[in-house]
Structures are given as C-alpha cells and as structure tokens.
Amino acid sequence: MKPTLARTSGRLVPAFALIALSAAVAPPARSDGGPPPPLGWKPCAQGPDDALGRELDQAGARCAELAVPLDHSRPGGRTIKLALSRLPATDRAHRIGTMVLNNGGPGEGTLGMPLRARAAMKDVGARYDLIGLDPRFVGRSTPLDCGWPIGLWLRSAGATRARFDHQVAVQRDLAERCARRHADVLPYANTRDTARDIDLVRRVLGEDRISFLGYSYGGYLGAVYTQMFPGRTDRVVLDSAGDPDRWGPRATQGTEDEAERALRGWAAWAAERHGTYGLGATPARVLATVNTIVAAAEDRPLRVGAHEVDEQAVPYFLSTGPGDDRPAARAGFTSIVRTLNEAAHGRPADPGAELDGLLMFVLTGAGSPLASPAAAITCGDRAAPRDPDTYWNDVQRSRARHPLFGPLKNNIWPCAFWPNEPRERPTSIGNPTPALIVSATGDTATTYEGGKAMHRALTGSRLLTLRGTTAHGIYGEYGNSCVDAEVNAYLATGALPAADPVCHP
User: Fold this and answer.
1) Alpha-carbon gap, residue 384 to 415, rounded angstroms
2) Are 494 and 477 in contact (CB under 8 A)?
3) Are 349 and 309 in contact (CB under 8 A)?
C-alpha cells in the first residue's frame, strides 16, 4: 500500500494546494451501455498560478471534465465530475492505443502523471495517448476534504494504554468530521466505483481496450479493473502493487520486518558518513541515536521549529524515511534524523523549508485534502474492526518483537469509526489477464511478498523483480535501467517475458 499519503510508503509529499479546474464538462456518461458523450478538450491551465496546467499545456496536453454517476447503480441520478488530461501520441502512424495512469495513494492526483510517464517510456511513449485521470474525490475530481486538523492519521499507539486511548479519540473525531461534511458521498468513495469510472472513460474515448500503468494502490486499482471488466485491457503494468487480499484498513500489519531491515540498512549508510551527520560511527550507534530520539519523544514532544513532534508521530517518520535507498533520499532522511536528534537534546532544531513543509503536511490541516480521500477510499473498500481493544491487543502482541514499529503498524485508524460500512464486498482478484508486475525485494510498504501474491492472483502475469533494493515505485522513478528496459519492451511489443525476469542494482 502506498497506503496513505503521499505514498506513505516511501515518497513523502509536503504540503500542497488543490487547484480548481474549470474545463468543459461533458454530459453525464452512462454506465448502462448508452451512447457515450463527447469530451470537450480545452487548455489545462486555469489561471496564472496553475503551474501544473501550464506544464501540461506546454507539453501539448489538453484537459476536460466528465460527469459520471455518483452511484453507478443509478445511472440517471446524481453526478460528480472527473478531471482528466490527455497527452496525445505523437507517432500516430505507429499508435498503439490509450493508456490510463494512476499515481497511487489512494488520494494522489494523477492529472499531471502523463508528463512523467512519457519521459519514462522513452521512444514508446510517443505511440500512446496518455490519460491522467484524477480518481473520484481526489485532486480536481469533485474533491473531498473532511477539514481535518491533522494531515495524516498514521500514528503510533504510544507507550501506554492512556496514549492509545488518546489515539482512539483522535481517530473517532476524524471519522465524525468526515461524516458531518460528506455523509452523502462517502458510500461511493471506493475502488470498485473508481474502476467503473475508468471503464466509462474508456467508452467515452472510443476504445475497445485500454492499457494501464499504476503504482502502489494504483496497482491494486488496475487489478480490480481487470477483474471487473475482463477483456478490456491491452498492456498492464502494476508497479509496487502488493497483495490484493491485504488491501484495506489493516494493510500495514505484517510489514514490521521490512521496516526494521530498511532502518538497519539506512543506519549502515549513515554510519559511513558520521563525519557529515554525526549520528554515530557504527550502525549500532546510529540506531542508539534513533532510540534516544524515541525515548525523548516519549518523555515530551520534540520542538522542531514551530512544530511539536510527539511519540505517536516520530515512528511514522522513522518507518517511511528509510524506504528509499537512493543516495539523495538517504541524505534527506538523515538530515531529518539529525534535526530530530537536536530537538531530542533540547537544542534549537531548525527544520529548513523541506522538513517544515513535511511537518506541516503531517501535523496540521494542510494535508487534509489528500488525507481525506485516502481514508475515504480505504475505509470504503473493506470493513475494519470496530472494537478498539482489537487494535490494542494487536499492538501489545507486536510490541515485544517490534517495539518501535509494532505499535505503529497495528494502531487504530479512522476506519474503525467510519459512518458507513462498505457497499460491496472487496474484489477477489483471480484471473488470467496478462500483466507485468514490478516489485523490489526491499519494499517497505507493499512488500515483495505482496508482489508475489499479486503475481499468483493474476495467473497470466509475469513478476519483474528488482533484487537487493529498498524502493517503492520503480519503473521510470528509481532509475534502474534494467527495469525500465523490460517494461518498455513489453509496452512496445505487448509480449510478456517468457519467464519472470530479475534485475539488480
């Protein structure tokens, strides 16, 4: 799961602002097989401050809005608007077709993703029309914002029952805020309805089949689409997709080992650079510094600039930061730990612009526009246990073996108090759709075991493994030429590898 925000898995996204889209709105698309409406493509930029729109326009993309049913079982009822972009194929003579993209999250906007995908696809990118579709209630597609005072619900349970009970109250409050604002639409925030939206987009674009590229949660969404709409996909790439049977409010359970291995790997890197960062000359001493930070936060919140980082937030940063082993990511996370260490010793801790933005996103309402739809979709897909004692007992069982990450990975989420149960059962994935699944052996979010589970569920798939690497989101992002070449060969020819390929750093 890039469960959560900003792909909590490994890409930490600082505060951002949603930009309203005022593109042409097509008549409602019908999900009953009726004739699809035309789309009115227009420039994407909606004013001088719309940097994303300007970038899309400069690349030759166009944007539109499509009205779709809120409730697909009532195609003539209330509608919501989906925002989409299209970056047309430039090699029209060798055009392969249309590819729909998804960034993951859930909750991450995808409108600008065609720009990144075109670069990753190199020459073959010119042969596809690339569609950046913000999923329902995400980004510019009828955005859902619960007005939360914090931007991320992922928190550790803390050291005591009293602190866990505080988390219970916080998570209940988050769910109640969503219910007060959006009770009428929350039942329709889920992956199955998003898949139905994608199929309406396919029909509106006049395509018999579409290709699909999705990262993290986007890989799960792609698998659900293949299950619900068999025979309507061409080339499917699911990057860092995870186990489809584990997606939902408790998806982080069981990922403690991966988080700890990644933390140890980072500690070895930081120890080799003790002269730069001063966190410890050996991996053991670096980890001792981490333990000092955790202990200090248990005693009192750490003051970092204008922010207070308590014991329930610190483990989140320590679990996500080591999830990318590239040097720049290592350096960025090590700087965060150095700042937290200063705060732990009562010294002035200046977060700098990047960390300040991240703290704003996680600790304040600045992240609510992304956190809200992420929770709504997660809670709308699979029911969560309602009894807080269920979570507390799991926390206590995991704490002995995983004292840092057990209370984080097993903690309660707002789904425990969500105002509505899922409208449908979770989709059971099991079909022979051809697909290329990409997974790194050190993925800390949607683990490699999860990638293998997705491979087993999609019996016509191949599993492309990146060994010896800690990463989440690989194709076109991590910078591994072997992975990029394997994926691009598949996208160019439509032929999956004869066996499951393996790449190395």
Assistant:
1) 6
2) no
3) no
